[in-house]
Structures are given as structure tokens and as C-alpha cells.
Design a protein that fits this description.
Keywords: Signal. The protein is an all-alpha fold and 120 residues long. The protein is 76% helix and 0% strand.
Length: 120
């Protein structure tokens, strides 16, 4: 899993909701396309958002998690490598921003699912 792909995921989610947010008239899609989105795309996006969120919130043994980055930054400071520690601290701040994006993406997918996919 590559956390940097969050941008692509969020961009894909924007396409799902772009019609109501950017156009003055709602964009309509065929019932077949809605069914395809509900049965294929929504579950994949939900799984991806959950996997990325779980990874970011993982333990110190989870590669790329906030705790893992914190541990690496502490190790770098202990070794006297403050430049590396500063880079890792900046990366840690990005993880927090990514969690916010993932949360918003999950909300939008849930809204789309409740409005268009029924009780699935």
C-alpha cells in the first residue's frame, strides 16, 4: 500500500460528488452506472480508505504509521541526526492531514452510498 496514492483516491472520490458540488444543474447518470458504482467502486473505495486509515494509525511495527515515524524520528535524534528527525517530523504532520482527507472521503462515500445504493 502506498500512502501517496491517497491523492488519486480522493480525486476519484471527487468525481463521484463533483456533479452536485460544481455544476448548477445536477448531473444524472443511468441507473446501470449507479448500480455499477454501488457494487464495484464504493466497496473498493471503502476498503482502501479503511486500509490506509488503519495503516496510518498502526503500531510502531507498522511501516509508515504515525507511531513508526515517531520512533524513527526519536532514533534519529538519539543518533544526533537532527536533519533526518526534522524530515520525519514533517512527514508526521502530513499523516495527520492525510487522516483528515481520508475521513472526508469516507463521509462522502457513505453519503453517496446512502443516497444512491439503498441499504447495501
Amino acid at each position: 500500500m502506498n500512502i501517496s496514492r491517497i491523492g488519486g483516491l480522493v480525486a476519484g472520490l471527487l468525481l463521484l460528488g463533483a456533479g452536485t458540488a460544481s455544476a448548477q444543474e445536477p448531473i444524472t447518470i443511468s441507473p446501470e452506472k449507479v448500480q455499477q458504482i454501488c457494487s464495484n467502486r464504493v466497496p473498493r473505495v471503502e476498503a482502501r480508505v479503511k486500509a490506509l486509515t488503519d495503516r496510518i494509525n498502526g503500531t510502531a511495527e507498522t511501516l509508515g504509521s504515525k507511531k513508526w515515524i515517531e520512533q524513527k524520528a526519536a532514533d534519529a535524534r538519539k543518533a544526533g541526526n537532527t536533519a533526518r528527525a526534522d524530515v520525519l517530523d514533517a512527514r508526521l504532520k502530513l499523516r495527520d492531514a492525510q487522516l483528515v482527507k481520508l475521513s472526508k472521503a469516507a463521509e462522502r462515500v457513505a453519503k453517496f452510498k446512502s443516497e444512491h445504493c439503498g441499504s447495501k
